[in-house]
Write a structure and sequence with these properties.
Distance between the termini: 21 Å
Number of helices: 10
Order of helices and strands: HEHEEHHHHHHHHE
Radius of gyration: 23 Å
Number of strands: 4
Shape: elongated
Structural class: mainly alpha
CATH topology: Fumarate Reductase Cytochrome B subunit
Length: 252
């Protein structure tokens, strides 16, 4: 009798409709897609700007005869990876600066909204137990085995997501904006502390490049995780907010 009841219960669960949960609020979804387009344009226009002088330096100065720590001389970025696709420093700067304002305004709006609705405190801030090395290492091993969270755990950010999102939102994007401002002579005159903080415009340019590379790495890992976790479900949740919750492994 018990075996029959368990079998009937399992059959009922198997035929049950999928559980749908509201995963992402509207401000988060809007900022995600606007930011995706903004970063895409800024990275490609930034590569065109870099083509004009493909050398990076540390310190106050940086001229053609200084020794760069990184140089792409003779290996220009191809047109398919730049905006515009043809050489135009002035055009690339217009694209870059226009979308830089969109990045700044979007980041400020997101931070204000997320602090007011407690998205940062509730969803992004790691708890002390999550920061324990054992907990972090466990999540690393689970991701390496492609064992993604299921059930209610799938509705919460894991510690690796929290650390990466927190780092992008509160470290990389602000650093990208501040180093970009430091490269502007007008901003250096208005805020003379900027070149002091970054040890000169050329150091700021190098940091700007490094941060851009880290953002590209984040985007590639993020896209890989979306594909591995189920792209239709993941993308749909970022468009509509609705997410099909994977059944808990303990119930399978």
């Amino acid at each position: 009798m018990d075996a029959m009841a368990k079998g009937a219960d399992a059959a009922g669960q198997a035929g049950a409709p999928p559980r749908i949960a509201y995963r992402h609020r509207l401000p988060t979804r809007i900022w995600h897609w606007v930011n995706a387009i903004t970063l895409f344009v800024m990275l490609m226009s930034g590569l065109m700007i870099f083509n004009a002088h493909p050398h990076l330096y540390w310190g106050q100065y940086g001229a053609n005869f200084d020794h760069p720590w990184l140089s792409f001389k003779g290996r220009p970025i191809p047109g398919w990876a730049t905006i515009p696709s043809y050489y135009s420093l002035a055009g690339a700067r217009r694209w870059h600066l226009a979308f830089a304002w969109l990045l700044v305004i979007g980041l400020i709006a997101f931070l204000i909204t997320s602090l007011l609705n407690r998205h940062v405190q509730r969803d992004l801030a790691p708890t002390p137990s999550e920061l324990h090395p054992g907990h972090i290492w466990h999540d690393v091993k689970e991701h390496a085995r492609l064992h993604f969270p299921t059930g209610d755990a799938a509705l919460r950010f894991n510690i690796l997501q929290k650390l990466s999102y927190f780092g992008v939102i509160f470290v990389l994007l602000p650093l990208m904006i501040l180093t970009g401002l430091t490269m502007s002579p007008a901003m250096d005159a208005a805020w003379p502390w900027l070149p002091v903080v970054f040890d000169g415009r050329q150091s700021a340019r190098s940091i700007h490049f490094i941060v851009a590379a880290l953002l590209v790495l984040f985007i590639l890992v993020h896209l890989a995780m979306v594909v591995l976790a189920g792209p239709i479900n993941e993308v749909r949740s970022m468009i509509t907010g609705r997410y099909r919750v994977p059944p808990d492994r303990s119930e399978a």
